[in-house]
């Protein structure tokens, strides 16, 4: 934005308020990271002594935390597979083809991002309960796919739109078969988008609470469900370490996506490589 | 056709054949997602709707709705609306200040600021809420800071009440408002502001008469979006709201998990759904109206 020449007071005021707001956004995360290394348990900041005991407790084999980390990983992996399948096919239909009822399908795809998740969760419970599938990792993954697939689809649509169709036409005019074109032209060009879609699907599932809460049984609780229960009922300080791991995982995932996009030569001038997804 | 030199006419035949092929491909590719979402998204929601209209003996009833709209239930609904409105207004104000500052930062700082806005958004809301719980407690960071500064009345009770909930939800909604406002502010043509100033308008007048109307659509979208998203939001109110039921989503969870009151939960779900649709409708109408005004202006 071009602007009027700034006044000094206005400049300082803006800088101060911006810093304060950015602190407001970053502080809760910094606090968790520091507290997780504190030896004295929950809620003391800054800690008087530092240790890694909560991390050790979290990783203890056979414990609640380790079990639910394994379950969450399995569910997130399944979700990733499902949303990639839906993402690639739906994006092909929406970004490339002349699809009858284009607007209706597009609206259907976007709807899960805006509908209150408690309603989706309630509906999925009604769907899976009669089938006796409560607590099944497959059911939770299918539920998570309702939320993750729209994100994967949006990423794949923008990826496919970014690929010059003339490259595919050129290959076709040289006699390449459709399979060859998909394998040798489209797929390599779409790889950064595929990786981003996979990462965001995984993270969406790994962080999701509401659907998992409704579809889980006491024996099968995903990590966020366990974290939520720990925060609501017990005061298990291990939860700081678990939270820190979730933070690290998210930052790692974002870094991976940024790296892949950069290597793939994608220049997104809007800084919008990251889709904004709805809430859990 | 493969490998041979093609005459121009043949190329056209080929592309049109390809076009037909493409619409067939599109149709086939649209099937998985459509089937999936109809089965696991639309059908379950219809299930919620029908459950909310079903009486104990199986017949049709509006009982669950009248129940949801009276007494304690109504007050939960109203406090949900209030918390959502407070959150929307607050995150709009804070988001406006931040987005405005970012729009005027040097690119390096602007990029860094956007990173601090966007990265927390991808970190589990559960974790961020936990961070706030640690910070806002009676002996938390904020209160120890205020106490050491001898703030009157400190320590304040910032947790397990509405203040805490709104602080928490605002921090969750803020990335949305900043992103929306950022987009609109970037689109404002600075020459308009400079021209107005050149004609002698004061800074305040330029802001009020030129800048604000230009970013108004973004303000509407950002505010409504955070309001809608807040309506069904659960994690922060449930963890920071204390014993008192504060929001509808928490009530639904409780009715299902503890009281087995499925019909009532479903009625609340449908009410949330209707409120969301209303919000989205307003958003859509405003967009349509802007488009029409725009067309009228550009055609005349």
Automatic annotation (TrEMBL), chain A:
<comment type="similarity">
    <text>Belongs to the binding-protein-dependent transport system permease family.</text>
</comment>
<keyword id="KW-1003">Cell membrane</keyword>
<feature type="transmembrane region" description="Helical">
    <location>
        <begin position="134"/>
        <end position="157"/>
    </location>
</feature>
<protein>
    <submittedName>
        <fullName>ABC transporter permease</fullName>
    </submittedName>
</protein>
<keyword id="KW-0472">Membrane</keyword>
<feature type="transmembrane region" description="Helical">
    <location>
        <begin position="239"/>
        <end position="260"/>
    </location>
</feature>
<feature type="transmembrane region" description="Helical">
    <location>
        <begin position="21"/>
        <end position="45"/>
    </location>
</feature>
<keyword id="KW-1133">Transmembrane helix</keyword>
<dbReference type="GO" id="GO:0055085">
    <property type="term" value="P:transmembrane transport"/>
</dbReference>
<feature type="domain" description="ABC transmembrane type-1">
    <location>
        <begin position="69"/>
        <end position="258"/>
    </location>
</feature>
<feature type="transmembrane region" description="Helical">
    <location>
        <begin position="103"/>
        <end position="128"/>
    </location>
</feature>
<dbReference type="GO" id="GO:0005886">
    <property type="term" value="C:plasma membrane"/>
</dbReference>
<dbReference type="Pfam" id="PF00528">
    <property type="entry name" value="BPD_transp_1"/>
</dbReference>
<keyword id="KW-0812">Transmembrane</keyword>
<keyword id="KW-0813">Transport</keyword>
<dbReference type="InterPro" id="IPR000515">
    <property type="entry name" value="MetI-like"/>
</dbReference>
<feature type="transmembrane region" description="Helical">
    <location>
        <begin position="65"/>
        <end position="91"/>
    </location>
</feature>
<dbReference type="InterPro" id="IPR035906">
    <property type="entry name" value="MetI-like_sf"/>
</dbReference>
<feature type="transmembrane region" description="Helical">
    <location>
        <begin position="185"/>
        <end position="206"/>
    </location>
</feature>
<keyword id="KW-0997">Cell inner membrane</keyword>
